[in-house]
Design brief:
The protein is mainly α. The chain is built from eight helices and no strands. Helix 3 crosses helix 4 and helix 5 (109-132) packs across helix 8 (162-187).
């Protein structure tokens, strides 16, 4: 089997959340990223954090129908990690402009920016959820996270029927949406 075919299988495994594929990616690439981070003003914890973020980017891309890997997985991961580490160093004002160049890189700025935007949006949503209050927070959690149906929610929250629970869920969603977009406008 060629390297390209092998890597495509690994990506399919990653997209399917296959533990063996994930372990293979870690085993084949983590040491390289760790060495890169350690050699460029980073710690072991930094290396773990950056590699984990890069794995999330790769996972999201692998699950996308439009993603076509144009390099080896290690080159892609290295590029994402390098970009993330440069941003982190820049934020900490420790970037000296002379990161060692271990391998070729691919352009991943768009993927990294999309990942960071999604993380920022999740943070805003967490903030909005923390401000929404009860019983809305518990109700939305029961429906979206615990995957309870309206009958169960009506019984748990003391609503007379599923329709009343559904109406309350809608009101809670509208309140959450209002809180989220109020914060979103302030960030923009």
């Amino acid at each position: 089997m060629s390297t390209l075919e092998e890597e495509k299988l690994i990506l399919k495994g990653l997209a399917a959340d296959d533990k063996q594929a994930i372990e293979t990616i870690y085993r084949q690439n983590y040491a390289m990223i760790q060495a890169f981070i350690l050699n460029n003003n980073g710690s072991q914890d930094d290396a773990r954090d950056i590699f984990q973020e890069a794995m999330i980017v790769l996972f999201e891309k692998a699950r996308s129908d439009s993603f076509e890997l144009s390099s080896q997985i290690k080159t892609y991961l290295y590029s994402v990690c390098r970009r993330l580490w440069l941003k982190r160093l820049n934020q900490m004002q420790r970037y000296s402009g002379n990161l060692e160049n271990m391998e070729e890189t691919v352009h991943v700025e768009e993927e990294v920016e999309l990942h960071e935007k999604r993380n920022a949006d999740f943070t805003l949503m967490e903030n909005a959820m923390s401000k929404i209050g009860e019983p809305c927070k518990s109700l939305l959690d029961a429906y979206y996270i615990q995957k309870k149906n309206m009958q169960e929610i009506a019984a748990d929250f003391g609503y007379t029927n599923a329709d009343n629970a559904k109406t309350q869920k809608y009101k809670c969603l509208m309140r959450l949406k209002k809180l989220f977009f109020a914060q979103y406008k302030n960030v923009q």
